[in-house]
Amino acid sequence: MVDELVPDEKLGPRHPYLVALALIIFLESAVLVAALGYLIFELGSGEPQSYPSAIALTVLTAIAAIWVALIGINVLRRQPWIRGAAVVWQVLQISVAIGSFQGVFSRPDIGWLLLIPAIAVLALLFTKPVLLQTARSEGM
Predict the structure, then answer these.
(1) Is the C-alpha dihedral spanning 17, 19, 25, 30 positive or negative?
(2) How many Å apart are CA 44 and CA 47, to the nearest integer?
(3) C-beta separation of 69 from 104 below 8 A
(4) Residue 82: helix, strand or coil by DSSP?
(5) How many angstroms separate the CA atoms of 84 and 74, rounded?
(6) What is this structure's pTM?
(7) DSSP category for residue 50
(8) Domain ranges of the chain
(9) At CB < 8 A and 24+ separation, what contacts does 32-38 make?
(10) Chain-centre distance of CA 113, in angstroms?
(11) How far apart (Å, rounded) are the C-alpha atoms in residues 21 and 97?
């Protein structure tokens, strides 16, 4: 929270890994916004088997899109809490990706589109430059 008040000049330049991490997370958020648009369109144009389920899925997708965008914003602000939030989101994304590779209705293309950025984010999160730039400040 103290970091929000510290101008970037005092923190130094953002490492390219941190910027890459933010870009991937923003891309994930944009995909969620696109999925939200699709769900809203389908809710208005089609007749779902269950309106409460369709509305709940749409609301959860909206919440996820906002949450992932907030993670991306706070990556650029170098907030320490983003590491845990990003790990949770990537693990969820990996579990959906694994499910996309299996079963009667398997979609390996979607599985790879979910798995590759999730692995990239997890790899970037634990690089030394990202860990240093998102570490808690002394006195917190």
Answers:
(1) negative
(2) 8
(3) no
(4) helix
(5) 12
(6) 0.86
(7) -
(8) 15-133
(9) 32/61, 32/64, 32/65, 32/68, 33/65, 35/61, 35/65, 36/61, 36/62, 36/65
(10) 13
(11) 19
Task: Let me know if 43 is exposed, middle or buried by CB neighbors in 10 A (0-12, 13-18, 19+).
Answer: middle
Q: pLDDT, tens digit, for every residue of 118-128?
A: 999 999 999 99
Q: Which long-range contacts (CB under 8 A, 24 or more apart) does 69-75 make?
A: 69/26, 69/29, 71/25, 72/22, 72/25, 72/26, 72/29, 75/18, 75/21, 75/22, 75/25, 75/134
Residue 84 has pLDDT above 60, yes or no: yes
CA angle, corner 31, sides to 64 and 55, nearest 5?
A: 50
- Structure confidence at residue 2 (pLDDT): 44
CA 84/CA 136 separation, integer angstroms: 13
68 within 8 A of 29, measured Cβ to Cβ: yes
Average pLDDT, the chain: 91
